[in-house]
Amino acid sequence: MMLDSARRLLAPSARSDVPPFMVMDVMAAAARIEAAGGRVVHMEVGQPAFGAPTPALEAVRAALGTGPLGYTESLGIPSLRARIARHYSDAYRIPVSPERVIVTTGSSGGFILAFLSMFEPGDRVAIANPGYPPYRHILKALGCEPILIETDAATRFAVTGDNLRAAHRKAPLAGVLVASPANPTGTMMSRQALADVIEVAGQEGISVISDEIYHGLDYAMPAETALRLSDDAVVINSFSKYFCMTGWRIGWMVVPPALVRAIDRLQGNLAISVPTLSQIAAEAAFDGRAELEAIKHGYEDNRKILIEGLPKAGLTKFLPVDGAFYLYADVSEFSNDSSAFARWLLAEAHVAATPGVDFDPLNGHHFIRFCYAGSAADMNEAVKRIGAWLRRR
Ligand SMILES: Cc1ncc(COP(=O)(O)O)c(C=O)c1O
User: Fold this and answer.
1) Which end of the chain, N or C, is surrounded by fewer C-beta atoms within 10 Å?
2) pLDDT band at 22; cut points 50, 70, 90
């Protein structure tokens, strides 16, 4: 009796039982090789190899010598919200009112606020499979049900209006989350594809969340914002990727006016506010465009190296490399177990990549994700090593 109650007190909740990110295992194995003197080409973690742009760092240095850096308003520093709103007229030529902009702790913080403010426990939310794992894990932890929609090459691995409607007819959906460019596939939705999903969602009463974290890193076609297509969509974005500020943990959302007060209350209770220094850095980061565009051009060069080099090395099947900094390769001709494939690739060729099972519980055992956010020299080295390794096998 005593034992049972003690066990219950110590046991983690069922809702916290979400899978870990398997890329961490790859990182740990890579670190062991490096500790033993090996040189690993890192293509496993989805983050820029560069830091925040110079104006962001200068703004932070200046701020450290001034005020107390206390809490800010829960929705964010007003001048940052206004600067983000201006970004929409600069980059997309659409007006966005600063009142609709909410500063978050990365897009990760944005998902929690979006899901809490839009959905009730038990609500079903559609997401593309393959997809970014925390979508389904956060939904589950919050008591919602992620509904994986299978995607394929015919739809550039995105949810379509038709399969959204089909899923909704089977069992009603409260929401759908789309991402373009997407992780892990690196594929994008055309403007028309995004418009179709938004139209069906509107007809069926399904709320739309658009994860636009990889905007700015679009090569095959211009990335379209859901804000141009709908006043009701919730857009989530971040300073992590294009702005090279992963560790600063800062992002933003643009939400319909009806959600602003609810999110204000949630953020005030959950976090009080987003770290002040990061907000100051983020506002200044918009002045670092020249540096950021140069980094983007580097990704474009890397993309070309891989698109041309990997087929010659022996990896001939991969998804369209549209945007973000990911290439998603089908390795099924070599292995039915992408985790084992990634382990061998790391152990024998010292190239670290992420197995698709992290992103796709159904078909991920056939895929490997390569992140090409490193240097061109690293990309050339990776192609060389992969080619030599596959020839040896
Ligand atoms: C598609 C996608 N969304 C969201 C995130 C979370 O990023 P952050 O919380 O740093 O903004 C990531 C990180 O890799 C991602 O790939």
Assistant:
1) N
2) confident
Nearest CA, atom 1, ligand 1: 183
108 touches ligand 1 (CB under 6 Å): yes
Q: Which of 103, 183, 236 to mutate to test the pocket of ligand 1 (most atoms within 8 A of CB)?
A: 183
> What residue spans of 146-256 are helical by DSSP H?
161-170, 191-204, 226-229
The pLDDT tens digits of the residues spanning 299-357 come to 999 999 999 999 999 999 999 999 999 999 999 999 999 999 999 999 999 999 999 99
Which residue out of 22, 47, 107 has the highest number of ligand 1 atoms within 8 Å of its CB and is therefore the one to mutate?
107
Judged against a pLDDT cut of 80, whether residue 3 lies above it is answered with no
391 CA from centroid of ligand 1 (Å): 35
Instruction: Supply the pTM of this predicted model.
Output: 0.95
Of residues 122, 102, 119, 96, the one with CA closest to residue 207? 119
143: left (phi over 0), alpha (psi -120 to 50) or beta: left
Pocket test for ligand 1, best of 104, 115, 213 (most atoms within 8 A of CB): 213
Ligand 1 near 184 CB (within 6 A): no
Q: Is 192 exposed, middle or buried (0-12, 13-18, 19+ CB in 10 A)?
A: exposed
